[in-house]
Amino acid sequence: MAQPPVALHISEDTESDGQEPSPCNEGAMHTSFRQLIQEQSSLVEAAAGAELEMPARDRESPEPQQGDEHAGYSSATLRILASMPSRTIGRSRGAIISQYCNRTARLRRRSSRPPLQQLSRAARPSLRQHHLDTDPAVATLEEKRSLLVKELLSLSPGQRSHMLLSVPLSLAEKRTLRQELSGQRGSPREDTQRGAPFSPCGRSKYHIILGCRGLWYGLLSLLPAVQPWHHALKQIGSRFGSSVLSYFLFLKTLLGFNVFLFLLLLVFVVALQAAYPPAPASHQPFTGLELLTGAGYFTCSLLYYGYYSNVTLNEPCAARPNCSAAAPPLPYNMPLAYVFTVGVSFFLTCILLVYSMSRSFGESYRVGGPVGDLAIKVFCAWDFKVVRKRWVKLQSENIRTQLKELLAERQSRSRPRSPCRQLEHVAVRLLAWGLSLGTVLGCVVAVHYFSEHMHAVQQDAGSRASGERQQEAVLLVLPLVVSLINAAMPHLYNLLATWEKWDSPVLEVYVAICRNLVLKMVVLGLLCYQWLSRKVVCSSEACWETCVGQDLYRFVVMDFIFTLLDTIFGELVWRLVLEKRLKRKQRPEFDIARNVLELIYGQTLTWLGVLFSPLLPAVQIVKLLLLFYIKKTSLMQNCQSPSKPWQASRMSTVFITLLCFPSFLGAAIFLSYTIWSVKPSETCGPFQGMETIYESGKTWVRLLEKSNPNITWFTWVHQYLLENTFFLFFVSGVLLAVIYFNIQVVKGQRRIIHLLKEQIANEGEDKIFLIQKLHSVYEQRERRS
Fold this sequence. Notes:
- The chain is mainly α.
- It has 27 helices and no strands.
- Helix 6 crosses helix 8, helix 21 runs parallel beside helix 23 and helix 22 packs parallel to helix 24.
- The radius of gyration is 37 Å and the shape is globular.
- The chain starts with 32 loop residues before the first helix and ends with a helix.
């Protein structure tokens, strides 16, 4: 049978044969992609028709070097499969070079090409040279490369470098192209066409631009080194995995929140009060015990609420009642600045927390099973820019640890259980939860009665006028007992987790976090109730806000001391016992749940004490810095990698969520109730003599309205927005709605991606069906012939 004719409707410009193509009629420029698609389709149909009419001897000859996945298919079927777009992507360098040559030509003419209506028919663009991509016999690879070099020379240096970066070729090919460009760029004619400068001033300007660009790239390369703990975090992640790394990343996040809070309080409250100190009071001598108790020398200092004055700081007659000096142009009201700074800092911290939680939801709750992640990690994880031996070793350890986590996660999902086994696990877990909640109740009752007892002991010691050292020792007893409970109970919960035998280490960490969180939050709730009831153990009766600040300072310091003791005895001493006494090649594992809950507990204490101790965030900053280096050193020297590797893809999201809702929300409720409802002290502090702390804002608004009647709108804003609780509930509802909608958007995106994956799988099945039909057609034609 005769082969069907192949008709390619390609318009050519016959006048330009043998000549260099002009910018208007080059083959790279065309007006319709549909025509090019028709051309490719006609080529494939022509090849298919030719194969259908092949003799029997050609059909029976096997195609060399074909895979086993299509064994049994005829050579015609295999050739059509080999010409599919999915089989030819990335195979031909000539196709890539031609594609980017065409793209370069389009980029060059984007600004200089005249409208198509103004051109003659012979000068309009055609598809004359698009057969370079489909027929390799027309042009060799060298011709295509020379054409690409010619097009790149016509671009500006910025466009040229951007195009070379985007070409999907190897580094050797790109280096060859750059050498050819640098070799051909030196001719005066081409430099004149590009408008390159030849004057000394122009050359100096060009070298200055190159120097500035090199300096900028050098600064960008130093950016990772400027980031805090960049190398340390990489080292931890490569050796211990993402689960342990999540703790140190969370610590870094908390450090950022505390630095932000400290800077606000320092600029608007602490620094100004230090510049205008109140009347000097009798200071006690510094003995060193104040570092533990927070009392003594620190009582009348910038550390606590009672030191701050209730006057306008820069007013010349603030200390002298019979003074006739003029009022300052910008009076600074300390009570108003104190309450507004605390309120604004909490509001901005809330916005940062919501933003961090929303971004963490978008990054963590992503779609992709362990199989796809495993393939990406195997084939695409290596960074070829790494050349130093130290970083190569670090990256190889990181990839190996991530592969272990992915394989462990995949293995944990494929473990079926029998119904009897599931029922047994449910009964054990219910009993473990009952025991844990019972211990929480017992600890809370013990803390309550012990606090009442210590309050009575303090009153008795004050009435008997006992020694100062004894009174300060009594101040440390309640924080010592609470910190001892917080340090001992997580080990009991670890024993319960061992009894429960969790298969998934992720669920084990989540359960431990929930149990520890319930214990710490309930104990803190009881302490907040006692602080607001004025049942606080204090060294003086002058200002109850200062006593609360001292109590919170002692809790923060005692929590840090017990963290150090737990690190020493739970990691260092236990490692020595395992290695020296028990002769085991085993080290303790890093307890993520307990250490994370210690961070959340310490941060909650800091937020609770901002109103009563403005410099408490500075104490927390020092504590976090010391904790990072101590924990990192102990981790590297005393701990081993997790025995069950697991991927902490959502761990950061859980940590931020726990920090936001139980911790920050509880602290915000406590401070809001204190500002709106609790009466401040009568003799000290910036709000002395007022019914509530919030009344300072009302007083300032009334004074402002009397001094300037034209700003009555500000009074309306204060009355209907700040005093109205509906506005506060509305703002809180908006923030919660933002979080909710962000979660729903992420879930919707996950569902859409899941549907798209199903559609891709269905299209693959459709291709298999069509290939089978095509093979049956060949078999039928073979039988007929």
